[in-house]
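Example: AGR2 protein.
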Amino acid sequence: AMEKSYTSMFLLLVAISCALAKDAGKKDAKETTAKPKLPQTLSRGWGDQLIWTQTYEEALFRSKHSNKPLMIIHHLDDCPHSQALKKAFAEHKDIQKLAEKFILLNLVYETTDKNLSPDGQYVPRILFIDPSLTVRADITGRYSNRLYAYEPSDISLLYSNMQKALKLLKTEL
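Written out as structure tokens, the predicted fold is:
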């Protein structure tokens, strides 16, 4: 039964990959007529010069083995709040610089890991995970009803939370 579910999961991933590859091909054709644009990367616009991981599993592995904290950004392409935060994040030079010290992952889908939605599944939400693979539930934004939500006006709080995640790393490990 386990093998069967792995096989169907694998086939699903292959199907999704093929569909995404087809879409990417269509988009590329359109974009060449417009101004030359950087190829869309795993950054999804959150910082094209940053190195992003593809999956949660890869991100956890890299965090553990590089001893860098992991920053996970949950967002949706059609969510105006996510888009506004993405723009603020991508344009904030200090955040982009600090983000280089993290393993980065942005997700446009929910994971099955309940640790990544400690207070619910909403977007945008940003969580930090230390290299011991502990979700830092203590690093929160300013909203009591959505602890890990940030808005563009909270960008300096996000920056200080990123600094906090790095500081905790040095003091606790």
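Residues 26-38 have pLDDT under 50 and may be disordered.
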